[in-house]
Design goal:
Elements (H helix, E strand, L loop, with lengths): L1 H9 L9 H19 L2 H9 L20 H14 L6 E13 L5 E12 L4 E9 L5 H5 L5 H14 L4 E8 L9 E2 L2 E2 L9 E6 L3 H20 L23 H6 L4
Parallel strand pairs: 3-4
Antiparallel strand pairs: 1-2, 2-3, 4-7, 5-6
Length: 259
């Protein structure tokens, strides 16, 4: 949302709170990073429930928000670590890798990659964790074929180390979905087919997609750099107002600054 960008990065307004959906996602990411670094489940669980999870402990243990309570997150992550306890060996290059790449128009592209690793066959893969509260169906995966964030990460890794063979999306479903609602190709999963709760898929970013990204990036950043930094020049994308637990700047958009 351009308006959200305006409030956060041009005006420098930092939200007073983090939405529980984002907070839970951050804790799961920290837990996964801890497990990758230590290979110890208990260390990963302690990280999940420790620093940064204070607000999550205040959530109710019943109702829609219960899925983000640390006790439920612990149940989800223990099942995750159990399922992937024998995953193929890999050589981790780095976890939570922060990058800052100089772009052709003088701007800097920055962000953080969840994990970068080499496979035993020599491939360089970027792993991106995604916590979600919906089933990982056809439409969930389809969007990653041209997902801007994934394209950005792929491009950044190529600039940093010279190659990125593919992006691996690691989906972790934290909602308590009944097995009878889990479907594949229109057919319900059997009781023992809960692997859909934790699923991974690879996406190769083609050169023409990267080229299109560069054209789009330069057009957007050149525009933002050139226009007067006034609110009316940054439209409000109403379809994003409820994303990730609700936009923290929604009240400002509705009522203006409150002094």
């Amino acid at each position: 949302c351009p308006r959200r960008f305006y409030h956060r990065w041009i005006r420098g307004i930092v939200p007073r709170r983090t939405a529980s959906a984002l907070n839970a996602g951050e804790q799961v990411h920290r837990s996964l990073a801890a497990f990758t670094q230590t290979k110890d489940v208990e260390t990963a669980i302690a990280t999940l429930k420790g620093d940064g999870a204070e607000a999550l402990w205040t959530l109710p243990t019943e109702g829609p928000e219960a899925k983000r309570h640390p006790l439920n997150l612990e149940k989800v992550m223990r099942a995750y670590f159990q399922e992937y306890r024998n995953e193929p060996k890999r050589d981790t290059i780095d976890v939570e890798l922060h990058f800052a790449v100089d772009m052709p128009n003088g701007t800097v592209l920055s962000g953080m990659v969840d994990e970068l690793y080499h496979t035993t066959s020599g491939l360089t893969k970027l792993r991106e964790h995604k916590t979600c509260s919906i089933l990982t169906d056809f439409y969930f995966w389809k969007r990653f074929e041209h997902d801007l964030q994934i394209i950005v990460y792929n491009y950044a890794v190529e600039q940093l180390i010279g190659e990125c063979d593919c992006v691996e999306i690691n989906a972790v479903l934290i909602a308590d979905v009944k097995p009878t609602k889990l479907k594949k190709n229109g057919e319900p999963y059997a009781e023992d087919k809960k692997k859909i709760w934790r699923e991974r898929r690879d996406f190769s970013i083609q050169k023409h997609v990267t080229d299109n990204f560069m054209d789009t990036y330069l057009a957007i950043t050149n525009y933002v750099t050139a226009i007067p930094k006034k609110q009316e020049n940054f439209y409000q994308a109403h379809c994003n107002c409820q994303d990730y637990g609700g936009c923290p700047y929604k009240q400002i958009c509705l009522y203006g600054d409150l002094h």
